[in-house]
Design brief:
TIM Barrel; 8-stranded parallel beta barrel; 12 strands; about 30% helix
Length: about 325
């Protein structure tokens, strides 16, 4: 039985989580074929992450492929792939953020609509958590970018998922996103039933070990789908506003996705944002940039090296992953 603790997290400074998303396991639809439509990170990519002094990777994967039927058993082959990847990353000293990359939906149906209930999400986490109990290099990401769902509906699902993780015996760090793609720029946006800021100040955690995950891109609509980054200043201002909210309520945050192309304004914006996050490590416990991955090819935001040569974006990020930086502590200092 977990002791009841403060809802704020972390209760003391810990090693910063800094690295990249390594995409691929979330590629393709629910019925995609492994090795043809989607893949998990290669040893070479994990070696590269280690060589760059990363402390963490965010690992996206699909709900439907791991649990083909709601409230059903996990697919043994997919579970094995996930476990092998975690072990390979952990053996290199990398913390793995397990990212349920589903946008608050399952097979196209939103949580809160029909059979895709808060209980369904809780069931998933109640089943997955025991496979990683006791591993202090695991972070559990409740859901990637909840979208087209109100903060009120998502809050109930997030609380149910967090409760299920604790009921399964875990006191590991949990990342709690908001809705509207969990954008920092949308944290205070009015919604039916209340904004993310209104509702998520009331999240409760018996283990007292969660942080809020936000994403923040730099392009004109904050989507990460455009070639230039004219709103880098606005993006950082959104993070600053959220940092004030975090500190007011005794919370911390984590930037799970941010990125840009190799355009000059994107590179400048990436440098500005990453510098801000590292310099404000009391509020922000870390970040994972979007995105490396073996199958990206010519994707404009790719961080995957080509023939051993880093992309321009990675050259900007690398100094913030220095050996000295990787040893930095994040979160509020002990009282």
């Amino acid at each position: 039985m977990l002791a009841v603790a403060s809802a704020t997290v972390p209760v003391h400074a810990a090693s910063c989580l800094r690295g990249v998303n390594i995409a691929g396991a979330e590629f393709g639809g629910p019925n995609a074929v492994y090795g043809q439509d989607y893949t998990y990170p290669s040893d070479e990519t994990l070696d590269w992450a280690l060589e760059k002094n990363m402390t963490a990777i965010r690992l996206p994967f699909r709900w439907e492929r791991l649990q083909p039927e709601l409230f059903g058993d996990f697919d043994p082959a997919e579970l094995a792939r996930l476990q092998v990847t975690v072990q390979a990353a952990n053996s290199r000293g990398l913390t793995v953020i397990l990212d349920l990359h589903n946008y608050a939906e399952y097979r196209g149906d939103r949580i809160g609509a029909g059979k895709v209930t808060a209980d369904a999400l809780a069931d998933f986490w109640r089943r997955l958590t025991p496979y990683f109990l006791g591993n202090d290099k695991i972070v559990l990401g409740l859901m990637n970018e909840p979208a087209d769902i109100t903060a009120k509906v998502w809050f109930e699902a997030a609380q149910a998922g967090l409760n299920a993780i604790r009921e399964a015996g875990s006191d590991q760090l949990v990342l709690v996103p908001g809705t509207i793609w969990t954008g920092a720029s949308h944290w205070f946006d009015p919604q039916d039933g209340g904004s993310n800021a209104d509702l998520f100040q009331h999240i409760e955690d018996p283990a007292g070990n969660f942080t809020f995950e936000v994403h923040q891109y730099l392009d004109e609509d904050y989507s990460g789908t455009n070639r230039t980054c004219p709103r880098a200043d606005d993006a950082v201002e959104a993070l600053k506003a959220m940092a004030d909210w975090l500190k007011t309520h005794g919370f911390t945050g984590f930037v799970g996705e941010f990125g840009g192309t190799a355009s000059a304004d994107c590179l400048e914006g990436l440098d500005y944002m990453t510098s801000y996050l590292n310099e404000n490590s009391d509020a922000w416990i870390g970040w994972t940039a979007w995105a490396a991955g073996d199958w990206w090819g010519n994707y404009p935001l790719s961080l995957q090296p080509v023939d051993g040569e880093d992309r321009p974006q990675m050259k900007v990020l690398a100094p913030y992953l220095s050996a000295a930086g990787s040893a930095q502590q994040c979160g509020p200092a002990p009282e």
